[in-house]
Design goal:
Blueprint: H1 3-17, E1 23-26, H2 31-38, E2 42-45, H3 53-67, E3 71-74, H4 77-89, E4 95-100, H5 110-118, E5 121-124, H6 127-135, E6 144-146, H7 163-169, E7 178-182, H8 191-204, E8 209-213, H9 219-228, E9 235-239, H10 244-248, E10 253-256, H11 266-273, E11 278-281, H12 286-289, E12 296-299, H13 304-315, H14 318-335, H15 338-359
Parallel strand pairs: 1-2, 3-4, 4-5, 5-6, 7-8, 7-10, 8-9, 10-11, 11-12
Helix pairs in contact: 1-2, 3-4, 4-5, 8-13, 11-14
Amino acid sequence: MGGQERRVLAESLGMRERGHDVWIAATPGGALADRAAEAGLDVIPMSFRRPLMPANALAFGAWTRRLQPDVVNSHSSADSWTAALARRLGPRVGALVRTRHISVRVSASPRHRFLYGQADYVITTGESVRQGLAGSGLVPLERSMSIPTGVDLGRFRPGAADRAEVRRALGVAGEGPVIGVVAYLRQDKGHEVLLRAFPEILKSYPDCSLVIVGDGPERLNLEAVAKHLEIEKSVRFAGLREDIPIVLAGLDIFCQPSLRNEGVPQSVLQAGAVALPVVSTEVGGIPEAVVHGKTGFLVAPDDAFALADRITALLADRELRRGMGEAARLHVSGAFSVQRMMDRTEEAYAAAVRFAALRGGAGGPTS
């Protein structure tokens, strides 16, 4: 359950609470399918493996003809292609929405023109992603909307747990400061850059601890890097956790050292919601979540020295940390609530239905 899957589930549950009928098409036995079923959502079993795409498109087309949805919303590459092919191969059923989560630039190649041309409307998780699609000539601004993932401000709030107890549970000894990162352990999240920055931080704050929450393919490599840098005694690999509000209560600073491929990361917003100052990078939609110099600091990606410098500056000034944390809470609560996300998603779906009606045709749009 990465950020994308969590958003799909939260959005689906929110739509159900607002009186809409919701189905989730997902891989049988996968985390999203299991969580959706546990929550009482109707799950359409479908593997989105690329070799099966033509057959999946036909199967998905059959499902949509049977269920007659007003909106079909795809969230990643394989499911977007499946939905687009299903539309092309069969009669139009419902408005087709494409949600784009990451900031990788999409070229205006013929295949991408086909893919995005089939969509009646596009939702992005950050304004920078939306502008990028418009700049490529793939999606006019009037057919898109930026809707960052909302944060449950009741769940993510300052003082959600006792700080000392959380630190003990995370294996942090003493009263030294704690820096934390919550992210899937893969290369583009930049954990290794933070590890390379940490020896410099320890020079000024030898009792500082780094807590890395999450799991993924990079874990063994990151553990090896920490050992090579001789900082393993100060680094805690906490693994996958579901109690993120409690984990955040034990931190002094949140760091998201992403290298690329970001929309507006949920973890950054969640940290701001609990009034933590954030040090992150100028990647994707992160500057929409972190106001440089006000709610935290932004540095260039893959710059371990700059990362260490900004974290050290925050550690040196308790009042600066407090002020930035309070500003972060206000920023997130004003622009990134779950209520706002759901309101705007309903607006986007309504716009998609209008565009679909205007464009018409059984074979899908051609532009």
